[in-house]
Amino acid sequence: MSSPGFLLRRPASARDAPALHGIDRLGALLTLVGAAGLFLLPFVAFKANRILPGDPRGLEQVLPVWAALTCWATLAAVAAVALLCANASLRLAAALAGLVVIAMALATAANALTPPHNRIVRVAPGAGFWLLLAALGLLATDAITRMRPGPRARVLLLVLFLGVVGLTLAHGTFDNVSVMREYAVNSSAFALAARQHILLSLGSLGAAVIVALPLGIFCHRAPRLQPGVLSALNIIQTIPSIALFGILMAPLGALAAHVPLAAAAGIRGIGAAPAVVALFLYSLLPIVANTVAGLKRVSPATVEAALGMGMTRWQTLRSVELALALPVILTGIRIVLVQNIGLVTVAALIGGGGFGTFVFGGIGQAATDLVLLGAIPTVVLAFSAAVLLDALVERLDRVRQ
Amino acid sequence: MIVIESLTKRYGSATAVDAVSMVIERNSLTVIVGTSGSGKSTLLRMINRLVEPTSGRVLIEGRDTESEPGHTLRRRIGYVIQGHGLFPHRTVAENVATVPRLLKWEEARIRARTEQLLAALQLDPALYSEKYPHQLSGGQQQRVGVARALAAEPAVLLMDEPFGALDPIIREKAQDDLLDIQRKFGTTIVLVTHDIDEAFRLGDRVAVMSEGRLLQYDRPEVLVTRPADSIVARMTGSAERAMRLLSLTTAGEAALPLASDGGKEDAPVVRASASLREVLSELLWRGSEIATIVDENGTPCGRLTVAAILARGRPS
Known about the structure:
The complex is a heterodimer.
Chain A: H1 5-8, E1 19-20, E2 23-24, H2 25-39, E3 44-47, E4 55-57, H3 59-62, H4 65-84, H5 88-113, E5 122-125, H6 127-147, H7 151-171, H8 178-221, H9 226-238, H10 241-258, H11 260-264, H12 272-296, H13 300-308, H14 313-347, H15 356-365, H16 368-400
Antiparallel strand pairs in A: 1-2, 3-4, 3-5
Helix pairs in contact in A: 2-4, 2-6, 4-5, 5-6, 7-16, 8-12, 8-14, 8-16, 9-12, 10-12, 12-14, 13-14, 14-16, 15-16
Chain B: E1 2-11, E2 14-24, E3 29-34, H1 40-47, E4 55-60, E5 63-64, H2 70-75, E6 77-81, H3 92-96, H4 98-102, H5 107-120, H6 125-128, H7 138-150, E7 156-160, H8 168-185, E8 188-193, H9 196-202, E9 205-210, E10 213-218, H10 220-225, H11 230-236, H12 241-247, H13 251-254, E11 269-271, H14 276-286, E12 290-294, E13 300-305, H15 306-312
Parallel strand pairs in B: 3-8, 3-9, 6-7, 7-8, 11-12
Antiparallel strand pairs in B: 1-2, 1-4, 4-5, 9-10, 12-13
């Protein structure tokens, strides 16, 4: 899974005014995308039941005239700001206003199209809605990037965003939208999947840190072994995830069959065990490589001074070398966490659980809404993890450099 | 007093330091000088056991350095390296407090000591305590490095090319400051350098090393007047040895009594702390035969003639 990097890292060069003859280039692109979504593609798809193909409906077909007009007017104003205005705060406000308007339009459309007490009819967001969402989301994140918020402010923004979305969902505003319908049916399975997903991602990360950190230190101390270890880990990284899950099924199954203790500990050929092992293996390279790189960055004079002051080797490693390498090591951990949150989805194939259960279940039943019920929280989870760890790295780097 | 007894370090078949023996007096400033690869840094690092000797031993105040773990030994010995080696993630105050923290001093004592040292090194504690090393100039970083090394009141201070990263003007100032500090704290200092001028300027005694061996260890003027061999002679500079000799004596030390008539009115005036080399240069420039020496307060305290200076430029 690739992470939406534009929100996470501040651009190296100043890009406050990418304007061309007064017209913002990104704004122009996003306006085109948004306009295409609004006028060429259906805003929602009306389905008689959850697996039938949708009947496309435009905004003007599903909303009262005044509401559709309000919606168009707002989006036109947003486009004007995106095209002509360089003020980042105003751009952010416009993007947020646009997001609120299309969200309300979706909820209104779902409520209007769904007959009372009907649990079979589905109103799904259409391609036009998704394009508008993408364009407005990009506009918002670009505005945030231009405002250059500090690490603390970025975390605050994330919490605010998650809070607003969470409250809206809890309030039931979107209950008639197809994905939320799917959620209502699967709510207990959803909670379980969320727990499994987080546990699998963090558990494999934790195990990887415990092994990879000493391995990285060892590679740093014994530079001769470094190429061997790193290329071995590199090879693991090149195995496709589905293949690795498959490869692990046989030995873990044999282990469970012949070692009663392993079976008692919950190790099976399928399920969480091969998933954790595979994720753990994938996690090693980024952490080991970043630990080595971080330690290499510590100047030999600093280490020599630490030893010369009378620090023991362990004190030097902990309070000087690792302390100085920490931002780089955390960057590796960030890569791994985001990568794992994505890969756990695939682990559902071998019974590992997590949000992937919905994705593959949805593919099996040709139920797009169920696929989305798995995919959307995965993206939100990965995105949140990336923002949090990036903020942490930047905060550490700011103090220490 | 530091006694070094036939200290040797071998790396495989190469000998970095070859059976060096020397005695370093308490409260003295000893300079070990040599070209790169002469083994001078290795010798220094064997004193605090950053490098473990292959054979031989070191006694500090009669106590064998092998009688305790290396890291506790090093907490009692100050250590300053080229490029200061300050911890970039710690503030100036935290850097200075490194060894007292390792020794588990009380916080109040650590704070008092840190402030005292920063003030002694002309770094206003209120201004610099909370700064990070990268916010300081090269000269300031170097002084923090010295403060850090002196924090736990070590009797011995080892310095490995401490001024190597400084530009010439700051360097001279830093050398003067070091002499002040040595007088103030009475620390025994062993300093390694490749710069013979620095060695002559700072050293009470100078040890010349080449290819792992100690060629000569004596007072600077003896190195000039009676070099042990051709390498020492070449290093101390045979072409300018007379001038070097003059640079080792101050005008105050060589001053003749004031003439009864109070001396010539227009005679050049020089400070008692200036070296004879500087006085001679001043006399040549001014075309004068005689200079009046004044003390720190500007009061005349003696005179110097060209003839008297020239007499000092010959081996006695």
